[in-house]
Write a structure and sequence with these properties.
206 residues; 22% strand; 22% helix; 9-stranded mixed beta sheet; alpha/beta
């Protein structure tokens, strides 16, 4: 099983609470910018503590195994045979602009990994809807009780991001909800499995 988490920050709850997931693809635009492409080159949103905080918050047993200056950073737990791939300084979505910073081969390999993902975590940052074009036809969605998820079109309009997001799209284009195999809803230390996105919304806001 493979997890995709865009805008991961230092949130390792999906890794901790879903031990059957062997490969976790963590993607974030930090430390270069906390806000994706916004001020990516200016340094205005540079977060100098991010890398150290990521390492300090790693779940127990994970150790960096890649050679310095290779990308992405790779952390492996030899006891559980689980791996976290950390793509830092990587805003999403990817336009041709990204090739100013990373080789095309790196992005193509990442796209290939995403195309085989079994899970996507939306646990804070709601990524650009373009990720749906890279994911397989069916996937499991991981959500969390501390994040906001729009439940209707009015909430989409009232809380609109400056880009079209995945959860907005699931409301505006409900046919895409059929792609979700199930929703794993993390509430504190408990996980509840919901059969549909509608069931998840009903459970969260009951």
């Amino acid at each position: 099983m493979t997890l995709i988490y865009i805008g991961c920050g230092t949130d390792f709850r999906p890794v901790i609470y879903f031990p059957n997931i062997k490969r976790s693809i963590y993607i974030d635009s930090q430390p270069r910018s906390e806000h994706g492409w916004s001020e990516y080159d200016s340094g205005l949103f540079f977060r100098s503590k991010y890398t150290n905080e990521f390492i300090q918050n790693l779940p127990k047993g994970f150790h960096k195994i890649n050679i310095d200056k290779t990308y992405p950073d790779v952390y492996h737990n030899f006891l559980t045979d689980r791996t976290i791939f950390h793509y830092y300084n990587l805003p999403f979505p990817w336009t041709n602009r990204i090739y100013q910073y990373l080789p095309k081969k790196t992005i193509n390999l990442l796209k290939y990994d995403i195309s085989r993902a079994t899970h996507i975590a939306i646990c804070g940052h709601d990524p650009h809807v373009a990720i749906l074009n890279l994911l397989p036809a069916k996937f499991t969605l991981i959500t969390i009780n501390t994040s906001f998820y729009p439940s209707n079109k009015i909430e989409v309009e009232q809380n609109a991001e400056d880009y079209p997001s995945v959860c907005d799209d699931l409301i505006l284009n409900p046919d895409n909800q059929q792609r979700i195999i199930e929703v794993k809803y993390l509430r504190g230390d408990r996980i509840k499995t919901l059969k549909t996105y509608v069931d998840f919304i009903g459970e969260k806001y009951a």
